[in-house]
Amino acid sequence: MDSTSRMEEPVSAEVVSVAQALSLPAESFGNDPDIEMAWAMRAMQHAEFYYKLISSVDPRFLKLTKVNDQIYSEFREHFEKLKIDVLDPEELKSELAKEKWRPFCLKFDGSVEDFNYGTLLRLDCSQGYTEENTSFAPRIQFYAIEIAQNREGYNKAIYISVQDKGGAKGANEGEAGGKNGADSGEEEKVEKGADSRGEEEGVTREGEKEN
């Protein structure tokens, strides 16, 4: 398994059947609550991991798949005018939208692992994963929109917000702990934090050479 899919875990026969259901023609999709419930826990784990990722690394440099360039170019070719900072659910889930998205999604069958797995997608990219701000989408649709949001700068608001809060918290803790203790302690935290985050990310930064 390559580094871009460490978050994936073995799935049950029930989940496999859901994946097969999601690969049916667009007119067969519907909004089946049983399908959505079958994915809920796994999709939430993926969402939590991804949100942590864009909070700790500048999203412009994230490489979520090995075919980021192709996904982005195909996405903007097919959905040139789609507004992605705040998504309209009708542009994702209406019958007309599903007919338009299906050919795009199927292009990545075989090149993107688990391309049709159910995934949670934020509607307003400046906000986190809440019940009101979340829609259910196939994995390739998630990749297409998030890669575009990353490249076009929309997701940077999350990164800046979290980094600003972290910086303020670190400054307050440093003052409380005393100057000398803070200096040595913060250096150790940064080193350990960078090591653990690097192991945990499961993606590469765009522009870096992959092993």
TrEMBL record:
The protein, known as: Polysaccharide biosynthesis domain-containing protein
The Polysaccharide biosynthesis domain, residue ranges: 35-159
GO cellular component terms, A-Z: cytoplasm
Matches recorded under InterPro entries: PBDC1-like_dom_sf, PBDC1_metazoa/fungi, Polysacc_synth_dom
Native species: Heterocephalus glaber (Naked mole rat)
Biased composition (Basic and acidic residues): 187-211
Location of region: Disordered: 166-211
